[in-house]
Amino acid sequence: MAQDLPSQKSGEKPAATPPAEPRRGTIFTTGLLAVCLSAVLLVLLLGYLIVAPTPQTVRPAGTGPALPPAAANSVRFLAPRQFITPELLADFQTETGLTVELVSYDDDESVTPDSLAAGGADVVLASGVVMQRLRAQDRLNVLPARQIGNLGLIDPTLRSLAATYDKGGLHLVPFVWTSFGLGLNREAVAAKLGVSAATDTWGLVFDAATAGKLAACGIHSIASPSVAFPAALKFLGVSAQSDAPGDTERASALWEAARPFIATLDTASVSAALASGKACVAIASASEVYQARAQAREAGETFTLQFVQPREGTMLRLYLLGLNRFSANPARGAALVNYLLRPEVSARLTNSRWAANAVPASALYVRQDVKDDPLIYPDIGPFRKLAPDAAPAPATVSLRERFWLLMSAAKAPPS
To answer: What pLDDT, in 10s, does the model give residues 121-139?
Structure first.
């Protein structure tokens, strides 16, 4: 309730009202001062705008240095060299009018968080372990299902496997997979070891007596610790992703002993070395060995190149597609993913790169000799025996990579 106003006492005169002129003068003075201050502030603001630097786009923290901007009307695609070629993307460019900037890489270790910085790749294809790391760092966008209608064509078994790397299955889509093992020049190996020697073993590289005989005809390997260590650990009879420090030390010692017999550690040159006959043994993926065989036949070579999965066990690597969270062209990236998942496009990759794809409907377009090859498309039993690629503990990864840098710098045997 409002309080009563105090009453005027008897005999008191009413308070005098201030003269009108002084009040009008105060208002005029205050208004003039406000106008002057506004003018000063306006002048200061204009001065700041003239001398201030041009505002820059704020990029997410931790995304690394800015990458070169993509060309107008383009989609930037980061993908393994062994799978994606410009020819595979030609129809997409014709249909959409977009240019695909294909950025190729050789090893998993080449894909870093900076690859998906603002201004980086719009679409990335990488192994499950790499994509799992990028997902954990919040670098990947949720796949827009309405724009990627072909998501429903993915093999359910591979979709389940992909959940290992993408819990919930919202950010990654399986696309292609292969296994790792040995590429052999059958005639050259038989000449060194004898025709009855067992060749389905990592011992061709890690057994000193055997590797010593094969060094003269060329032992090569891809240069990736994420493949090299699982191979050594399988030969030792332990888990390919063991985190035990003792196992890492034993695998490191195995590679250190094998290094003098290995001519090169270079992923980019493995296929060419096999195709030219410079390598009689190589640690490589099935896809790379089959590509080398095709190159050798085209060159008129008569030796036989063979891919072998060592009996000690080997590794399956699933490659998945994802969209950069910081992409300036999310719709274009989604269109490219949808194109790649077309059955006829997936089949084209399989037919030319000898790698199994994740779209069962593509079988209609896959060549019969590829479809029937048990090393490219194994039956369910052999498939389950392949150890899916998995990431060991960060400390183990760091230890492996430090050793690999030291070991790979060692001298190779004389040619």
So the answer is: 999 999 999 999 999 999 9
